[in-house]
Amino acid sequence: MTSELEYRSAELAGVSFPQRTIDLIVMPYETEAHVPYRGRMITEVCSRGAWAGVEARTGRIRVNRDHDIRRTVGRSMAFDPNAADGLIATVRISRTELGEETLALADDGVLDASAGFALMHDPRTRKVRPGAETWETRNRRRLNALYLDHIGLTPEPAYDGAQVLAVRQGDALAQDDEDGAQPNLTAMKLRELQALYAAIDARYLRP
């Protein structure tokens, strides 16, 4: 893949919380988006089938905060490129400080789903595959064959319809105080987080 990455994001849809996974629509199909492209605004549509084969790379596609590869928070667990609404993904968020923050912000409706993608390339020629994109008019672009580089969780939506569908958190929080420098502060923070997650569970897991 030699072309530059492009980014399309969207608004959060809903949060639940049983198992540390997030379900989201990476990019909707047949939905017009008005996006900046090389210094101008265009209308863009993602075709059904544009993500064919992405499921073969499940587990290798990472989840980053703000499209920053230095701020990885998880990885993909499953893809459904044949869903009616668009490319559906399930991602697992790692049990790190940044991962905990990511789950909390997603629950608050602050973070949105986003795709870091490029046009599909021919591995032999390293050139864009013919037909990977078509320009229906000068300002209307259709995406037909795409390569998903990563999934981003970002506070800046840009693509209506790509949504976080649900956040699920499973077992109770566990935290090791490796350095022992501030045990009282660590215990207090742990209790605060446990209370926060108990309140979330009570809200979303009511019978």
Write the layout of secondary structure elements.
Elements: E1 6-9, E2 21-28, E3 33-37, E4 40-46, E5 62-65, E6 72-80, E7 86-93, H1 97-107, E8 112-119, E9 133-137, E10 140-143, E11 146-154, E12 164-168, H2 183-204
Parallel strand pairs: 4-10, 5-11
Antiparallel strand pairs: 1-8, 2-7, 2-12, 3-4, 5-6, 6-7, 8-11, 9-10
- Rounded mean pLDDT is 78
Task: Give the helix level as a range of percent.
Answer: 10-25%
Element order: H for helix, E for strand: EEEEEEEHEEEEEH
How many extended strands?
12
Largest sheet data? 8 strands, mixed
The N- to C-terminal Cα distance equals 48 Å
Strand content: 35-45%
Low-confidence stretches: 10-15, 171-189
Q: What is the domain tally? A: 2
Q: Order of strands across the widest beta sheet?
A: 1-8-11-5-6-7-2-12
How large is the count of helical segments?
A: 2
Task: Report on the architecture of this protein.
The chain is an alpha+beta fold and 207 residues long. Helix content is 16%, strand content 37%. A hairpin with a 5-residue loop joins strand 6 (72-80) and strand 7. The longest helix is centred in the C-terminal third of the chain and has 22 residues, at 183-204. The radius of gyration is 19 Å and the shape is globular. The model is unreliable at 10-15 and 171-189 (pLDDT under 50).
